[in-house]
Amino acid sequence: MRKLGPFPADEPRFPIAIAVSGGADSLGLAFLLRRWRRAVIAFVVDHGLREASASEAGQTAERLATLDIPARILTLSGLSKTRRLQENARQARYEVLSRACAEHGALDLALGHHARDQAETFYLRRAHGSTPHGLAAMALARETPSVRYIRPLLSTDPARLRATLTAHGLEWIEDPSNQNMAFERVRIRNALGSGLSLYEALVQVRSHGQARLAQSARRARDLSQLCIDPLGFVVMPALPDDPVLLGQLWQMVSGQGYAPAPAALKALIAKPGPCTLAGGMLFAAGRLRGQREGGWCLAREAGAIRARCAAHSGTIWDGRFRIADAPRDGELEIACLGAESKRFRHHALPSRILAGLPGVWRGAQLIAVPPLNETIAQEHEPVTLQFSPRQTLTDRSLWV
């Protein structure tokens, strides 16, 4: 924890949050953090994907109570058991945890990932052709606009955590999905020690992590050439020659959880041209570059936007815009302008950018477009939106 500090004062106003699933890893983390510090709070996420999930969440909260750790159960709903179940559940979990941290004033969220998790991530990404950037695997600490994620156990053998819990008479929950060979990560986990080396993976991760830190310093030069507009698009004189940076830009603009495939980005850098990819679109900057010729604009693909949400303060719309302030009546919704964007052609923006901006709606009626300072109906309380993407371009992370 000293390597991750300094931390706020150890008092209730400044708790460190802990994501606790009820398994040995996260419960072991909670046990250790509570011995180190008094001001902690645990968040137990109930995915609702198994019949026993609610009772297991309650049981975990009770176990945390015996450790003198306050706990709050966060319930997810609407997760469909699709082919991308684990990925969708992970994204939903981080979103609800981030909101809970904001509500309780927690600047740091501790995660129970350990050395075997790190090795699994390395082999999983290598199998999918990840760049050296991705092969750095999980960061020891990663900052986002809303919370910093810390992983104090990233170099710890999970067997030590189980031994610690057993020595103190503490029980944990075993998730049956951890043995489901339908999941690629589980297959990799079972191969560790019988063909895949845990030690080799960790050595590689450390090497890639050091290289990633050096690359982040060099990337500052490329960032100085970009114009990132608060309406959520990027204007650049040329595509960056770094596929990682281009991927981060694409992810930031599109609001997606992941960047496009490295092979697709490398091909685009080698031969730039207008395209739509992974929720983003690239087109000639034109008048957005002022009097200068050439250049490219990267913006959200309006036709790919399906997001519609109630206008509640703190909610993130389309992975890009945060609702900073909204009335409490719950009648208003946020959705993209789409075809209604033709009403705002007087703004000096391409129509394809206008169509992807968020508007405030009451049912089928457009009420306002906060990013453009446009109000159609005067009787409603104002809604404030801010471009606040999940993906940041400054890599303020600790890798080694």
TrEMBL record:
<comment type="similarity">
    <text>Belongs to the tRNA(Ile)-lysidine synthase family.</text>
</comment>
<dbReference type="Pfam" id="PF01171">
    <property type="entry name" value="ATP_bind_3"/>
</dbReference>
<comment type="function">
    <text>Ligates lysine onto the cytidine present at position 34 of the AUA codon-specific tRNA(Ile) that contains the anticodon CAU, in an ATP-dependent manner. Cytidine is converted to lysidine, thus changing the amino acid specificity of the tRNA from methionine to isoleucine.</text>
</comment>
<dbReference type="GO" id="GO:0032267">
    <property type="term" value="F:tRNA(Ile)-lysidine synthase activity"/>
</dbReference>
<dbReference type="InterPro" id="IPR011063">
    <property type="entry name" value="TilS/TtcA_N"/>
</dbReference>
<dbReference type="InterPro" id="IPR012094">
    <property type="entry name" value="tRNA_Ile_lys_synt"/>
</dbReference>
<keyword id="KW-0547">Nucleotide-binding</keyword>
<dbReference type="InterPro" id="IPR012795">
    <property type="entry name" value="tRNA_Ile_lys_synt_N"/>
</dbReference>
<keyword id="KW-0963">Cytoplasm</keyword>
<dbReference type="InterPro" id="IPR014729">
    <property type="entry name" value="Rossmann-like_a/b/a_fold"/>
</dbReference>
<feature type="binding site">
    <location>
        <begin position="21"/>
        <end position="26"/>
    </location>
    <ligand>
        <name>ATP</name>
    </ligand>
</feature>
<feature type="domain" description="tRNA(Ile)-lysidine/2-thiocytidine synthase N-terminal">
    <location>
        <begin position="16"/>
        <end position="190"/>
    </location>
</feature>
<protein>
    <recommendedName>
        <fullName>tRNA(Ile)-lysidine synthase</fullName>
        <ecNumber>6.3.4.19</ecNumber>
    </recommendedName>
</protein>
<keyword id="KW-0067">ATP-binding</keyword>
<keyword id="KW-0436">Ligase</keyword>
<keyword id="KW-0819">tRNA processing</keyword>
